[in-house]
Amino acid sequence: VVGVRDIRIVRTAERRQRRLIAVASGKGGVGKSTVAANLAVGLARLGMKAGLIDADIHGPSVPTLLGTKERAQAVDKKLIPMEAHGIRALSVGMMIDTDRAIAWRGPMVAGALNQLLADAEWGDTDPIVLDMPPGTGDIQLTVVQKHRPVGAVIVSTPQDLALIDARRGIDLFRQTNVPIIGLIENMSGYACPSCGEVSHPFGSGGVEETCAQLGVPFLGRVPLDIAIRTASDAGTPPAAGEGPQADAFMAIARQVSA
Ligand code: ADP
């Protein structure tokens, strides 16, 4: 007979086992959310019960990226994650109107994060990819101190300005003893759809160089590709499909899961 106390022990054990992978960037617009969503979908394709949490409370984009328009339901005050493209996901954007500005102070944001992370029915979901807000502010600190991710994946574009910010992001994780799983170079090289010529609007190779300098793994690159943008806007993560876009994200998912 399993008593209440035993259930509590099982729950604690289950919570401890659940791994959080933080996907972060030094600044916005570098494709952090796109990478986070496709990493979660990629991990699921590799056979894991992957989840995705939108910790970007002020700019939630997970509902758009997964094409989930409905509201998340709650049972006994516990949110039920949405299921889409083989993963479970939760976002503040699934609780309120995404057109509304979220003018919350720190404690409210921390409370919302806690609801998404600890007070939701995640069941056997593992690992959970966390789409972090850009930069090194209040939410990042709450996440690293309170929720202790097993590691962080940093997304950057190759240009110097983005890389300077990415270094700052890496520093925050290092200071708080969260291991850096590695860096991803997004929007790396653009192949012209009509002539095929590859150009480098943000430079090239900068992220790999930074990895070598900082002694952290380089996880791969994702090209600047219109197909990635259109699929993302349509709510169909490229990692769930086929072709070179899916291959790029699957290669990264394999590196992260290794
Ligand atoms: P962030 O989370 O860093 O703010 P997003 O993931 O929201 O960035 O991406 C910003 C925009 O760039 C989105 O419109 C997204 O579809 C697009 N995007 C991201 N990565 C790529 C890519 N590799 N190729 C083309 N468009 C991309």
Describe this structure in words.
It comes from Tardibacter chloracetimidivorans. ATP binds at residues 26-33. Homodimer. This is Iron-sulfur cluster carrier protein. With 258 residues, the protein is of the alpha/beta class. It has a single domain (20-257), classed as Rossmann fold, CATH 3.40.50. It contains nine helices and eleven strands. The strands form two sheets. Strands 1, 2, 5, 6, 7, 8, 9, 10 and 11 form a nine-stranded mixed beta sheet that branches. A two-stranded antiparallel sheet has the order 3-4. Strand 5 (82-84) and strand 6 (87-91) form a beta hairpin. Helix 2 (32-45) packs across helix 9 and helix 4 crosses helix 5 (138-147). The protein is globular. Residues 1-5 have low confidence and may be disordered. The site of adenosine-5'-diphosphate has 17 residues, from helix 2, strand 9, strand 11 and helix 8.
Q: What's the topology here?
A:
Blueprint: H1 4-17, E1 20-24, H2 32-45, E2 51-54, H3 62-66, E3 74-75, E4 78-79, E5 82-84, E6 87-91, H4 106-117, E7 128-131, H5 138-147, E8 151-156, H6 160-175, E9 180-191, E10 198-199, H7 206-214, E11 218-224, H8 226-233, H9 244-257
Parallel strand pairs: 1-7, 1-8, 2-6, 2-7, 8-9, 9-11
Antiparallel strand pairs: 3-4, 5-6, 9-10
Helix pairs in contact: 2-9, 4-5
